[in-house]
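job 3f2a | input accepted
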Amino acid sequence: MNGYPPRKPQSARRVAFRKWAFVGAIAGASLISACSQPSDSQQTAEQQQPADEQARKDGDERAWADAEKAGTVAAYTAYLQNFGAGAHVSEASQRIVALNEQARKTADEKAWADAEKAGTAAAYTAYIQNFGGGAHAAEARQRVSELSRKEADERAWADAVRTGTAAAFTAYSQNFSTGAHVAEARQRLAALDEQARKDADDKTWADAEKAGTATALTGYVQKFGSGAHVAEARQRLAALDEQARKEADEKAWADAQKAGTAGAFTGYVQKFGSGAHVAEARQRVAALETQGRREVPSIDIQKTCQAAAGAMVSLMGGTTNEQDVNACLDSEQKARDQIVKDRATYASADKKQCMRTDAYLPSYVEWLTCLEMERDVRKMRGEDQSFGPGPYTLPKVSPTINPAATRQSQRGREPASSRRKGSRLEIY
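job 3f2a | predicted structure (428 res):
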């Protein structure tokens, strides 16, 4: 024995081969079947996939339902984050956009409501800054413009009232011609102007009263013709005029009394026809003229004039007439009246020397000329110390007293051939 099992006969080997072949065939079939059929794990995985998909769908729907129930941007955003490929992603995005737009509109309306409630330029400006493209941006800008203008108007008016001067109210009216306070500004200006006029009226009147002169009072009336004190000013002026007239009357009367001549009293009467002393002045004039006529010697001026006319005719030829004689008589009468009037101004020595009735053809004209010359010479002699020595120009006889003498003096400068005028008699 070699240790090997004993060898079987060949037939037995054939039977065994067929047995093992059958077993092998079965094993091979099993192996082939095993290769062609899925495993259990594979079958489990394939069975799990539909379940997971359904679970995902269910989770998606539940998440969407929850997001819709919440209805907020946060809920929809969470849905998108958890189900980026979910069935409702597009709708969730739309919902988010709509909610954001609604939130923006709501915020816009709230901000606008707050701005309107505040009603200030600052509030509207803040709205514009936060919602520059908002539904009320244009209106907000208009409100800002209006309120800014209004606030500036109110500030300017407050400044004008605080200052309280005409210049301030005028500036306000110029800068805010359509402002809320223009009418009141004009009223204030009118009141200030009236007050200034009253103040100026009272001050000018006080100055005029203090001065108390006609010039000051007249100046007040001229400047304030309708002032509060015009009536009183006119009364004061009338009183001053009356006082001045009385003082002038008294002074003129004193001067007339001091002179004591008929001429002085006559001059007083002429200047103060309704003066306090007119009656007395007339009495004085009448008395002086009466006395003067007694003192002034009488001359037969008819005889003097007739003789003078005859002498002129004999010297110059021609004929005399009544007109020439009358002219002479008029001159003589006027000269006498003047001597009577001014007799007090002549020195006694001069009257004695000049008024001589024993002279050939005495003449009042000649007497008057002599008296006035002597009087004026005496006067000039008294002024020699002040004015020095002459020469002095002697006065001429007034043409109203002796017009013939005036004509004669003029004719003295004419050629002799031109001085003869037929029968016209000229007395000098």
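job 3f2a | The first helix runs from residue 10 to 36.
job 3f2a | closed
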